[in-house]
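Dear colleagues,

I hope this message finds you well. In preparation for our joint manuscript, I am sending the ABC transporter ATP-binding protein (Methanospirillum stamsii) sequence together with its predicted structure, so that both groups work from identical material. I would be grateful if you could confirm receipt.
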Amino acid sequence: MKSLIEIQNISYCYSQNSPAIHKINLSIQSGEKIALVGSNGAGKSTLLLTLNGMLEPKKGHISFQGTPISYDRRALRIIRQKIGFVFQDPDVQIVAPTVWQDVAFGPTNLDYPEDKIREVVQEALRKVGLEGFDKRPPYHLSGGEKKRVAIAGVLAMDPEVLILDEPTSMLDPAGSEDIMDLLDELNHQGKTIIISTHDVELAYPWADRIILMENGGIIASGTPENAFSDKELVKRARLKTPILLELCQELAARGIKNGGRLPTTVLDIIRIIENEHHGTIRLSENGYGIIHVGDVDLQSGEKVNALVKKMHHDTIGVMGSRAKICARQWGINPDISYAVIDKCILQAMNGKSSLILTTAGMVSRVIERVTHFNQTNNRSIPVQKIISEDPTG
Ligand SMILES: Nc1ncnc2c1ncn2[C@@H]1O[C@H](COP(=O)(O)OP(=O)(O)OP(=O)(O)O)[C@@H](O)[C@H]1O
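The corresponding structure tokens are as follows:
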């Protein structure tokens, strides 16, 4: 990973108020998934707004790809294309009367030619799972759909970094999971993602790195396990320890060791408990359940549907925006649509079979993740591709 954004000693204050952020130093690497976590007023939004030049620090410097950000109109246009910003409230961001026009707004302002605008808008809508929404007026959309329109508007300019201020505020649990899953997918496609949130349960399993903020400053930066391990810091930030970490701390206090790795998922906790009880915990009589994984783009909906009906998996998981749309259109109702791989591994450890429907790049990700789990935990959960190319096209 190479350094993308360097923040050196920046401070910002609104009018005569005390600084909203002060003496912030931070280095952001290409490909990271970062969550700024802090309570109300900690300075998260202010810091995010400085990253793409929407606010100019009163002190200090910010560089992007080794070049200091400058604040003339031309330079700002470029930086805002490279570092896209999705506001907390999509109604602030959505300006046009139709979804298509709204997503085309950025590329049009960047003077893209007509056919390129068509291409990038189509691609952005496809990525966020809003194909076919072109003519819809944004004000008739649900909160989650509006959020996707705002994300598509930013993606249409092909930024390197995507910043999202409170990406799941105002969304229901399923809508929140969908957005976090989309952010994972975009990160997997190479985007650096930075979010702000005060929801520790959301940030903890999702982020590669947590930056804890309090009173305008950074008080911790590290892996989620490390950043949240210091109870004093968590208290100082007026936050809560994520429940999985608290559970692990309670288990440790009772002599149950974590095997050198703190848990970030339910699967990690089960692994800790299983290791402790090795040989005595109840495992399925049938051994491990199989995990099948299929690429929805390789076969028609009719054939995938027939396969799903024939194979009778205990659990159907759908991963990624495109696979979710296909499943919906084909009348396949998934049991899980977030943290799908881990949940299917849990099912497999319980002797249950599962099918994960996804798209090309993610198929190898599923196989790698299960294989890695097998290797590091001395398991042999079978994982297999099942949908092959349709020779009839
Ligand atoms: N436009 C503004 N004018 C004046 N003060 C502001 C403005 N925006 C934020 N502040 C102040 O700056 C400080 C940091 O606010 P900021 O919105 O960056 O925090 P935050 O961590 O994003 O909070 P929240 O989670 O509530 O959105 C707060 O004291 C806030 O009152």
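For the figure legend, we might mention the following. The chain has 16 helices and 14 strands. The CA atoms of residues 244 and 263 lie 7 Å apart.

With kind regards,
E.M.
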